[in-house]
Amino acid sequence: MAAPRSVLLLSGKRKSGKDFVAEELRSRLGPDVCTILRLSGPLKEQYAKEHGLDFERLLDASAYKERFRQDMIRWGEEKRRADPGFFCRAAVQGALQPVWV
């Protein structure tokens, strides 16, 4: 993993357009220059492993994910309290592009 030249952070409420803006930036800059890093992916992957759940189903906007949402939030907060960089390290693993969104 090389250090990025630029890191752009997007935050906002659920359904506020963060993914849309990130995809638009990557589209304009190109996938060889820009990668989108999401903390939710590593969080859901680890949660699924520890709880014996279907990781792929946790990624979509389904009733399956909603059933576990509150516990996943609680679990993620506990993980971050114990190790604040846990999900960030997982998210940047393998990122080679100079711009991270």
Automatic annotation (TrEMBL):
GO terms for molecular function: ATP binding; phosphomevalonate kinase activity. Pathway: Isoprenoid biosynthesis; isopentenyl diphosphate biosynthesis via mevalonate pathway; isopentenyl diphosphate from (R)-mevalonate: step 2/3. Pfam families: P-mevalo_kinase. It is found in: Cytoplasm, Cytosol. Keywords: ATP-binding, Cholesterol biosynthesis, Cholesterol metabolism, Cytoplasm, Kinase, Lipid biosynthesis, Lipid metabolism, Nucleotide-binding, Steroid biosynthesis, Steroid metabolism, Sterol biosynthesis, Sterol metabolism, Transferase. The keyword Lipid biosynthesis applies. GO terms for cellular component: cytosol. InterPro entries: P-loop_NTPase, Pmev_kin_anim. Its EC number is 2.7.4.2. This is Phosphomevalonate kinase. It comes from Setophaga kirtlandii. The gene is Pmvk_1.
